[in-house]
Amino acid sequence: MSRRVTFTDLGRTFEVPDNANLREACLREGVPLYRGIARLTNCGGRARCGTCRVTVEDGGGRLSDPTPPERERKGDDGRVCRLACQANVRGDVEMRRGW
Ligand code: FES
């Protein structure tokens, strides 16, 4: 089963397999998730740099729950703003880059 991911700031929608990691899906689809130097200096998906942030506009409950490292880094319940590297897609979602 596939899920639909929409980036409203890019006007772009693509499909991913159920439970796909959001960061990996973005990289595979060529979505410019990172800005500037973060393209080179990001932590590679270990929840350490925070540069893969997205703001979820619709379907936040259709992403996997925030991981402990993500909760620790963000300091909130993580339901609206997420780290793409820590989120798996379990339903159709809409978001924009950054927060
Ligand atoms: S890639 Fe560094 S926090 Fe997600």
Spell out the blueprint of helices and strands.
Elements: E1 2-7, E2 12-17, E3 20-21, H1 22-29, H2 38-41, E4 53-58, H3 68-74, E5 81-83, E6 88-89, E7 93-97
Parallel strand pairs: 1-7
Antiparallel strand pairs: 1-2, 3-6, 4-5, 4-7
Bound molecules: FE2/S2 (inorganic) cluster.
Written overview of the protein:
The model has no long low-confidence stretch (mean pLDDT 92). The N and C termini lie far apart (29 Å). This protein has one domain: Roll (Ubiquitin-like (UB roll)). With 99 residues, the protein is α+β, with helices and mostly antiparallel strands. It has a five-stranded mixed sheet with strand order 2-1-7-4-5, with helices on one face. The chain has a two-stranded antiparallel sheet with strand order 3-6. A hairpin with a 4-residue loop joins strand 1 (2-7) and strand 2 (12-17). It has three helices and seven strands. Helices cover 19% and strands 30% of the residues. Bound molecules: FE2/S2 (inorganic) cluster. FE2/S2 (inorganic) cluster is lined by residues 42-43, 45, 47-52, 83, 85.
Features:
3 helices; Ubiquitin-like (UB roll); five-stranded mixed β-sheet; alpha+beta; 99 residues; two-stranded antiparallel sheet; binds FE2/S2 (inorganic) cluster
Which strand order spans the largest sheet, edge to edge or round the barrel? Answer: 2-1-7-4-5
- Straight-line distance between termini: 29 Å
Biggest β-sheet strands, sense, barrel: 5 strands, mixed
CATH homologous group name: Beta-grasp domain
Secondary-structure arrangement, i.e. CATH architecture: Roll
**Count of spatially separate domains:** 1
